[in-house]
Design goal:
With 93 residues, the chain is mostly beta strands. The protein has a domain of 62 residues: Nuclear Transport Factor 2, Chain: A (Roll). 11% of the residues lie in helices and 32% in strands. The chain contains one helix and six strands, in the order E-E-E-H-E-E-E. The strands form two sheets. Strands 2-3-4-5 form a four-stranded antiparallel β-sheet, with no helix packed on it. A hairpin with a 5-residue loop joins strand 4 and strand 5. The termini are close together. 6% of the residues are buried.
């Protein structure tokens, strides 16, 4: 789906609709000391526990794209999610 690089969205800081630049959001690397990572290591990757049995989950083929919207006036940033699932996102137009 084609998504424009700029869009007029509501800015909470300006309290008005302003032009905002959209950039596709990609999460960074997972933290090694987060509780979920530590729990996974404790459960599956230590000692002589044998082979762990993971529950098989069928993953969805598509995701709802998340964008980082930056206000042109006050430069504040916030997340902007399009509530539709899509396989591919084309920035431009």
């Amino acid at each position: 789906m084609k998504v424009p690089k700029a869009k007029k969205l509501y800015c909470k800081k300006c309290n008005a609709h302003t032009n905002q630049k959209l950039k596709l959001f990609k999460p960074g690397q997972a933290r090694a000391l987060a509780i979920g990572t530590r729990r996974n290591v404790r459960k599956h990757k230590r000692g002589y526990g044998g082979k762990a049995k993971f529950v098989i989950k069928v993953k969805k083929q598509t995701k709802k794209p998340t964008f980082l919207a930056e206000c042109a006036v006050c430069k504040s940033k916030r997340y902007y999610v399009i509530p539709k699932r899509m396989k591919k996102v084309d920035m431009g137009a």
